Amino acid sequence: xxxxxxxxxxxxxxxxxxxxxxxxxxxxxxxxxxxxxxxxxxxxxxxxxxxxxxxxxxxxxxxxxxxxxxxxxxxxxxxxxxxxxxxxxxxxxxxxxxxxxxxxxxxxxxxxxxxxxxxxxxxxxxxxxxxxxxxxxxxxxxxxxxxxxxxxxxxxxxxxxxxxxxxxxxxxxxxxxxxxxxxxxxxxxxxxxxxxxxxxxxxxxxxxxxxxxxxxxxxxxxxxxxxxxxxxxxxxxxxxxxxxxxxxxxxxxxxxxxxxxxxxxxxxxxxxxxxxxxxxxxxxxxxxxxxxxxxxxxxxxxxxxxxxxxxxxxxxxxxxxxxxxxxxxxxxxxxxxxxxxxxxxxxxxxxxxxxxxxxxxxxxxxxxxxxxxxxxxxxxxxxxxxxxxxxxxxxxxxxxxxxxxxxxxxxxxxxxxxxxxxxxxxxxxxxxxx
Length: 434
Ligand SMILES: NC(=O)c1ccc[n+]([C@@H]2O[C@H](COP(=O)([O-])OP(=O)(O)OC[C@H]3O[C@@H](n4cnc5c(N)ncnc54)[C@H](O)[C@@H]3O)[C@@H](O)[C@H]2O)c1
Hints:
Layout lengths: L1 E5 L3 H12 L3 E5 L3 H8 L10 H10 L3 E4 L2 H6 L3 E4 L14 H13 L4 E5 L7 H10 L6 E5 L9 H6 L4 E4 L3 H11 L9 E4 L1 H32 L3 H9 L20 H12 L6 H14 L1 H9 L8 E5 L14 H11 L3 E5 L4 H8 L4 E2 L3 H5 L4 E4 L11 H7 L4 E4 L6 H6 L3 E3 L7
Parallel strand pairs: 1-2, 1-4, 2-3, 4-5, 5-6, 7-8, 9-10, 9-12, 10-11, 12-13, 13-14
């Protein structure tokens, strides 16, 4: 199949290269010329495990190419995916400017019947709106299918290659059939391709993210209660996670969820409720999360008796989660901003997100080549991302580097008893003080 992927970000690039990998002819198009140039050189503009090899091989074998020319990409494709950003507007809803601009451009370039697929996360009714926009501008027939994406940054290629399900929402049976065939190589393990109406498809993506966000805020609220009552959230998490009705996923306490999806998607869902539906549960999920992002900063401030001026804090981890360089809405931003506002010096290390951090903070913070370098001479370490390389540090070495052996663990990576044995003052989430 000839495919045009409009938007070469995390979703567009992964989707485009996975479709190329299964033998399709794919053009990834983006308005960001620097990004397209980089991709033509075989470089991926962000960190995503396995993506670079996939892009290089499929480019070399002629199935994948990159372009800034939307009209050309549309003309040679039978199926066009829209995978542009849908960021949050200030009122909380999804900003559909990019999606609608692309729909208009597609209409202007059409040279025959096309299938347009909305891959971006969009509010209910967007597929219908995209169809109206296109039909108002062209005589050529168009079918619009909603195909929400459930991949996770960090495991995006694997998630796309082996999805739990594929969702296709639309009314045109022929285009649903064609897209089902496109996805066939990815669902050979009997995972379902669910055909539904476009409104339900659109809602399913928001509902999935809202449940995940709710689980995280729930466990974080429970962690605060554990701290108050002298219980250990890690014990509680294990016990409740063994209940098959609950399951072990997404109930890890921490410093709140971030990233480009969960925060904006729950707010978009609240905005969908409008004046008719208050959506009290999701408002609470968002509020709990915002509070949680400030929790570690409260602990640091309290430990240093309210004054952080002239303190040097070593930050381990900047990305919103491990295995990505994405810092969008990362809890680390709230923590670092708070530390800087309080006059502290911040030294940071992240295995992948250093250049993202430099874009944001420039020389307002210092950077180190590894986690021990930033700890050298610091007053404490703050662990903000659950990178594997932070899981088993050399504690005796760390102790000799720090001015005082103090560690604030925003991801509960360590055992309080072990930390005590190593002589650390150890703070974590929902387990009291170690
Ligand atoms: N990142 C994720 O983990 C994830 C997962 C599932 C769904 N989504 C959804 O997928 C969508 C894309 O997310 P992303 O993380 O890939 O975003 P991104 O910001 O990484 O990429 C979006 C790309 O679209 C390009 N773009 C903007 N306007 C354009 C235009 N008019 N023509 C061509 N290109 C244009 C941008 O330059 C950018 O490269 C969003 O709706 C998001 O909510 C994201």
